[in-house]
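re: ur question from yesterday

yeah so i grabbed the chain u mentioned. its 416 aa long if i counted rite. heres the sequnce exactly as i have it in my notes:
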Amino acid sequence: MKKFFTVMFFLLISFNITFAGGFQTGTQGARAMGMGHAFVGLASDPSAMYFNAAGIANLKGMNFMAGTTFIMPTVNFTGPTPLEIESETVARTFTPINFYGTYALDNGFTFGVAVFNPYGLGSEWPATWVGKSLAVETELRTFYINPTVAYKFSDNFQIGLGFNYIISSILFYQVIDIPAIPVAPGVTLPAAPNVGVNLEGDGKAAYTFNIGLLYKPMDKLSIGLAYRHEAKIDFEGDLTFQSLPKTHAALFPEGKGTSSLTMPYDLRVGLSYLATEDLTLNLDAQYVGWESYEALAVDFDKNTPAWTDLKTLKNWENSFTLRFGGEYRMDAFAFRAGYVYDGSPIPTRYMDPSLPGDDRHEFTIGLGYQITPNIRADVAYQFISFENTVDDSAIRFNGTYKNTTNLFGFNLGFAF
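ran it thru and got these structure tokens back, copy pasting raw so excuse formatting
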């Protein structure tokens, strides 16, 4: 056990420095990613701590798994109507990480710890683009530390329970054009174009839990159920302005701001079927409680007639996702493919440039290689695209969003 925690500590340090988030990423293991992230009913490696905590009860000895996903999104916007100006996001790569470590005892208990980024968003538009007053740069990071315990009642039934400690941060930057402002009879402050508004803060410590069940009614079929509870995060940070004339400082005061955001609950059920000795097929269904995201609201310590608290309606809806995937094993290789129907929680009317979306059809492929009896490498690729036209925008920003995202996942697994 001492060896397990020593190795875990050094891996956590090495992967913490690569963290850069960027609300639900879902890319928590390259093996599962290759199968369209359909892994709840299988849950047969340490990443089960994310997908279905009960799965680690079937692991033996000591296991480690660590990796990252390179997420490279591109969003094009044409609008607003009737201007039809074409804009494109700045090229960026987000790298959510994942780390898992487990240790199995001889009495049916298995203990583990996971570190991953299940929720996060990121986008960056040019500072001079047509929607600069709505969003230029947006980034949410969440960092879950997830100690887990699982118990194997029998070869046919396991249960797992996890505790989640959440570290988070948020960044929002926009550029506004301040018009001329009358401040007294005969006195008017001149217009101030291209003033940067920067909101940046850290979340207070937050906690939640997750639970998983794995049941095998017959030799070739296993059924999984997993639930992760919602978590409310309170943020506190600083409001600053860039390129703001000194003459405007009293009307646009810098200072502290507070906000809160709820990470939604996540319910999943999965089936895994051993079709042949070498072929496994998986099917997952997921329901996420995005109704918790009703508005983005920020309370500032200092308000003036020209600058007041911020509130933007979001009115997100609960979403449904369906995943299907398979793995075919040939000697030391494993070939994988998957399909995802990902229902969007974002009503088109309330969509904004910080995180545009739509229902998506996604495709994945993956490859695993058993380097040695104790070391496995997994790689995966995922392609995402959508197009959505906003005709009745609540923020009066009609236009068409087109997205293309390429994702590349990498993981190494170690068993002792």
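noticed a couple things. The longest strand covers residues 157-178. also The chain has one domain: 2-415.
anyway ttyl
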